[in-house]
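CORE FACILITY INTAKE
Project code: CF-77B
Contact: R.S. (postdoc)
Sample description: multi-component assembly, two entities in total
Requested service: structural model of the whole complex
Turnaround: standard
Below are the sequence entries exactly as provided by the requester. Do not edit them.
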Amino acid sequence: MDNIAGQNASNKFAANITVFILVVLWLLPTIGLFVSSFRDRDQISNSGWWQAPMAVDLNFRTRIATDGAREENGVFILEGNVFADPALRANFPDSAGTVSAFGTRAVAPGEFPAGEVTELRGDGTLVVNADGSYRIETAEPLDRGPTLYFEARTPPKFTLDNYRTVLFADGMDRAFINTLTVTIPATIIPILIAAFAAYALAWMDFPGRGLLIAAVVGLLVVPLQLALVPLLKLHTEIGIGQSFLGIWLAHTGFGLPLAVYLLRNYMVGLPRDIIESAKVDGATDFQIFVRIILPLSFPALASFAIFQFLWTWNDLLVAKVFLPSGAESQVMTVKIADDLLGSRGGDWGILATAAFVSIAVPLIVFFTMQRYLVRGLLAGSVK
Amino acid sequence: MSPVVQGMLTIIIGVGGCVGYFYFSNMILDKVIFPAKGPQAGRNINRANQVRPWLFLFPAMFALGLYLAYPVVGSFWRSLFDRSGANFIGLGNYFDLFNEGAFRTAVFNNLLWVLFVPAAATFFGLLIAQLTDRLSWGNIAKSLIFMPMAISFVGASLIWRFVYSANPDIGIINAIRDSMGMVALDPLQVRFWNNFFLMFILVWIQTGFAMVILSAALRGIPEETIEAAIIDGANPFQVFFKIKVPQIMGTIIVVWTTITILTLKVFDIVYTMTGGNFGTHILPSYMMTYMFRDDGRATAVAFVIMILVLPVMISNIRQARKEMR
């Protein structure tokens, strides 16, 4: 089909370019999050993540000691280098750097370009050169060293500090475990229940079967919002309240229509001969289901498992309503949305890292099991 | 007891309970109630086979009934009572809601979402499905565009904060404005259009879904129809719009309605991005402002969502019944 009319080279080129642009657009936001999660806090607030591999102008301050002053012709001179300050060792390990601007007031740390001679408060002059060396001239000896502010180029810095904070100090580890605790039972239990029901709806004959299938299709689209108030009330009345047990039951109920629908659609397509010959050989329905249907339906079971896993892992609404809001039972989505966005709203490194930790597992599942996911989507939608 | 242990126990009890239920209920049916031996063996086997479907169906039907069917009725009933739940006020909650400006904004915004998100996601999905069809790296491209499907709405909202932030050192949009010498602005505070910025996050997530399904549908189109059109002199655009699109119209509609339904349920994006401020509430997020405070109002909002879903539900059921015949 490559050499037929209407498929010429320029079309192909246009398609390549368009797809490339779309892919970049689609990926860009996620890359931003990923890069930001590895950046140093000061760097994030001073340059965009797209400038991450480049040096950044950051502001620093240093207090100048007065003990090195000397007198020359009635003028007191104080000389030194701003990068020599031991407090700045973390940023300038070899005590060298490039000053681009300096100042004497915290509100205007980059008031003067490097090398410009400026008036010092009181009387006297000050100059800071690009290599960091400074010279202060005053008529009277200084009793207190002035504080110098300067802007210096700092090399790009990538760190795992954000991950350390998020994983070990911020309660995210707890949230991670809570998410797993919610997700795994809520994925496994509906599969079993749904598989039996799907087999009955696909291969057993009984009155009202068509009606039940229609009901399942109808329930597929019932908005979750309707269930929140009545079920929370019910859970409270029967003593489950807001708890893990409650959220497992809720996720099981909410996941079932899709599970039954997907599995039934798949099971109906299994070859009739196998099932009938097994029946002729005297197998019971239970045996047929366990020995034949379940193994053959593995792709459909896997695809539903992925759906349900992604859905429960990523869910915010059900967790907010059916789990207590305390830190000991928060899942990651709730932790990020309610906790971190409030208390760490401006700390972009922490936010990015927390988000990345929460999407890492679904992304791994997604990329390793994409085949089953696609198959499940197709079984559910294209008939 | 730590939740992890509790979780393990639940898996064991849940899975064991399910397996045990199915196994033993079958055994009791076959061995005790209707044993397949003795003078009535034949009749017993038939009877057992009449009961068995219901054994298989019971747990699923029970859970579906309790967790999805009952709430439709239960929510509607609750919405007829006031905040305390003691006084019957008829449709009072609904009247109050419709008199509230915020509710009308939420309904209006929700209509915008329902119109824009499915349309845009289906459009991009179809475009990408068609363009990647014959590319050598098409599968990689599709996989990357499909990726946001795995990301939670909360995660996606944070990701998009790095696009929309008002700080030109964080948000790309403001960085571009900054480099062109324009003042920074918060896109999420631009009235009316901020809704579209939020919608685009959902479009970003759902395009992959549309693309995967439409791409499979495009591959299912018989080659002869396309070849015939090309021989007749159709250009690529005509082939696409006049030959391919009409043949996959059914699938396009399925994709469109599926995304529509999803759009009506998503509250996370608005909740994490703006919290409903700056005129961005939609019904699901608006409902959450009443959740835990006024159950009567909350259920009334939920029921309004249900009414919006109803036409799709009916058409889906009709479609399913048609296919079964």
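Facility notes:
- Confidence is low (pLDDT under 50) at residues 1-6 of chain A.
- Chain A touches chain B through 123 residues (CB under 8 Å).
Invoice: internal transfer
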